[in-house]
Every structure is written in C-alpha cells, then in structure tokens.
Amino acid sequence: MAEPLEARLNDFFDALATYTFTPLTLLKFSKMLLGIDNPEENAGFRPEKRDPKFVSFASRIFKKATQPYFRPEVHGLTNLPAKGAGLIVGNHNGGLVPVDTFIAGGAIARYFGASRPVYGLAHDFLFRESTLSNILERMGALKATYKSAELAFEREGLVIVYPGGDIETFRPFKKRHKIDFGNRTGFIRLALQKQVPVYPCVSIGCHETFYVLTRGEKIAKIFGFKKKLRTTVFPIVLSFPWGLTSGFLPYIPLPSKIIIEFLPALDWSKYGPEDADNPEVLQACSREIIGIMQTRLNKMAAERNLPLVG
C-alpha cells in the first residue's frame, strides 16, 4: 500500500525541525556531547530500511527545491553501472549542509530509477538522533564503517563515500578547490578487499555556500571532541543567517551554482584482495585517485567565473 503523502511530509518536517530549529538542535546535540543521548544500537547498519518509493519522492521534491536556487549540473552518469556493486568516491563540501551530496544521490536515483540500490556513508553523529536517522536510513544513508559498506555491497549497491570527512568538508574557504582526504586510505582497502570498481566524483560550488575561516582543530583537541563526537575539528565559519558562528550549527546555504561530474572507473584490476594491506599499494592508489580528481577540479575551477555565480 502506498504511503500517504502526509506521512512522507511529516518525516521531512520532523527532520527539518531537528536540523534547523536552533534551540532544538542545540538541545539534542548537547545531549550527544554530554553522552546522555540514547541512540538506537543498530541505527546506520540497516540497508534494508532504504525505501525506493521514499527515495523517488524525496529526489523529485529536492530537485524542484534546488533547481532554481543552485542551478545544478550533473555530468557523467553514463560512467556509472546500471547494476552491481561499486564505490563512488567524492570530495566533501558544505559542512553540515552538503547540498551536493543530495543532488548527486537524487540524480542517480532519477537516472537509474529509485529501485537501483544506492547508499551514502555518513558520520556517526547523524545516527545518534532518532528523527534524523529515521529519514536518512529511508534515503539509503549508512554509518561510515567497513561493516555498513559491506552490507550495501551484498545488496549489489552503489556506495557513495567521502574519505575526507570532517577534515575536508570544513577545509578553509581559500582551500575550497583542493582535494583533501587527510591521508585516509580505508576506502581503498575496502575496494581492493571486496574487488569493487571505484568511480571518482568531483563537485564544485557547494563549498561556496558558506565561508570556513578555520577548522578549529586546537579547540576540538582542548574539548576532547575526538572521543566525544569522533571529530578532530571545531570549525569557525561565516554563514547565513548566523554570521560568525560554529560550523556545527546548521545554516541556510547561499545560492552557489553547483556542478558535479562522475568520472570513469579506475583500472585497479592488477591489484587483488591480498594487496589491501600493502602500504605501498594503498599509497599508489591514493595518489592516483587524488591526482585524477584534483586535475578535474582544477579544470572546473578554471572554468568558474566567480564564487556563487559559477
């Protein structure tokens, strides 16, 4: 039986209130910081909760909402497979409001159909709040762990991962055109162990929707965020409508033109599962994918006239 429109909208508004209504946001995330929240044990490890009908509904709504505001362009969807497991590796932008992530996921869903299993790996803290985790899991989000990616591959799913995580999504504005994975190679180990193809994805524009002054790594270290929130940053940003504030406070993104491109799969066929623990192989693969993505991002940046305008 089809889910009533009212129920779908209720999920959206519940998540929206949690994520953008500041007092409620501060209350819920303060509980996480103090360790007095009560997250579901299995949240983020349930790929079966992905709901194709909800994904289709959400992708249509999101396209209508973002098309006139961000003027997005998505290229290279033909480089992705219509079936089978695969790992899409992207550069992370936009802090707590990574609009390009949803634009990319929605574009894939509309191109292949929402029944094509696509999952996105996200930070742990998003699954510690039940309202957010509910809607994210229905859209195909999973915790950024080896186990969750493995579960998605078992379902022949495409998995979207952003290796740079908090380091990259809160990089300073002046470094917005730099690929920065923070020397992380876990995604390469995963791809080699599971022998899945890797598809680089490059995005530009989303990191102009706010202005990051600093990652705030020293502040994060002082307050022990690595242990409490599994992050090494406490970013200081300029965002609308708050002005100078913490990057951990959701914001209204500026209308920057966003362009996303999916690149052809990398040829790592010469490597087998036994190479997944070889540091030299991991570094070679890391240099290759970062080099390819950086070259493409440099070209996209050169073709961009002005921030926001594109």
Describe this entry's structure for a reader.
This protein has 310 residues and is an alpha/beta fold. The chain has one domain (5-302): Glycerol-3-phosphate (1)-acyltransferase. Helices cover 41% and strands 14% of the residues. It is built from 11 helices and 10 strands. It has a 7-stranded mixed β-sheet with strand order 1-10-6-2-5-3-4, sandwiched between helices. Strands 7-8-9 form a 3-stranded antiparallel β-sheet, with no helix packed on it. Helix 5 (130-138) links the parallel strand 3 (118-122) and strand 4. The N and C termini lie far apart (44 Å).
Can you tell me the CATH architecture? 3-Layer(aba) Sandwich
Total strands: 10
CATH top level class name: Alpha Beta
Percent in helix: 40-55%
Structural class: alpha/beta
> How far is the N terminus from the C terminus?
44 Å
Order of helices and strands: HHHEEHEHEHEHHEEHHEEEH
